[in-house]
Design goal:
This protein is of the alpha/beta class and 252 residues long. Helices cover 32% and strands 20% of the residues. It contains nine helices and ten strands. An eight-stranded mixed beta sheet has the order 3-2-1-4-5-6-10-8, with helices on both faces. The chain has a two-stranded parallel ribbon with strand order 7-9.
Length: 252
């Protein structure tokens, strides 16, 4: 179980899922270290509630301070699936901010920098990583985002660290930080749809960022989720309370 003697590093702290993860950890009074490229942005979001460390997964030399003495890592990093300004084409001599640099090489760098006695490495991946050649995931993977996510997963599994890999479907609910149709439409679940978990990369649909953040935190409390990769979507009527332990126990 998580306690206030733990220290959780959240990578991608100012992203949509990362913000929510930090909020949920702070509600539980769990010490948090926010990994960010922009101290000012993180400071505006979190104030003095968390420790802020400036680092960049694309630069391994920046990660030693970020990972020092942490007990858990929750990696919510990511970039757009299709070319956008976020990919940063301005400097030919700097690593890009595309999926290969962030989700494959960046995650690999973070894994290598993780403490050897880490209790858990949680990675937010994506549905479709095992169905990259099938519609609609072949479209989503046009510029390699699913290839990169799968490489990140492989680096985590090969590391020998305790891990949990979460594969949400199309993300909905705010914060709306992506450049996609869900952001344009402000798609949301209103908390009315149940959380469905599966394995084998067979689920399709949409997933609330709120529930992704919740499971990132909840899985750290249950050993049954260690060494597992699973998909999650929102579907059907939501029960009055969600039994996360029971849900996670369903994972093969």
């Amino acid at each position: 179980m998580l306690s206030n003697s733990d220290l959780i590093l959240v990578a991608g702290a100012t992203g949509g899922v990362g913000q929510l993860v930090i909020g949920k950890l702070c509600q539980k009074n769990i010490p948090v270290r926010a990994l960010t490229r922009s101290r000012n942005k993180a400071k505006q979001m979190f104030g003095d509630k968390v420790e802020i460390v400036v680092a960049d997964l694309r630069y391994p030399s920046t990660l030693a301070k970020a990972t020092k003495d942490v007990t858990h890592i929750i990696c919510c990093t990511g970039t757009t699936a299709f070319p956008s300004n976020r990919w940063d084409f301005t400097n030919l001599f700097e690593p890009k901010n595309n999926p290969q640099a962030v989700d494959a090489e960046g995650v690999t760098n973070l894994v290598k920098a993780a403490p050897k006695d880490l209790k858990r490495f949680v990675f937010v991946s994506s549905c479709g990583v095992l169905r990259k050649d099938k519609f609609p995931f072949n479209i989503l993977n046009s510029f390699g985002v699913l290839d990169a996510k799968l490489k990140g997963e492989a680096a985590i599994v090969a590391s020998g660290l305790p891990y949990t890999i979460i594969r949400p479907a199309r993300l909905i609910d705010g914060p709306y930080t992506s450049y996609d149709l869900n952001t344009l439409l402000k798609a949301k679940t209103d908390g009315k749809k149940a959380v469905v978990i599966g394995t084998g990369d067979t689920l399709e649909g949409e997933t609330s960022r709120i529930d992704v953040a919740q499971v990132c935190v909840e899985c750290l409390n249950y050993e049954v989720s260690a060494g597992k990769a699973f998909e999650m979507i929102n579907s059907g009527s939501r029960p009055p309370t969600t039994d996360w332990e029971q849900l996670l126990a369903q994972i093969d």
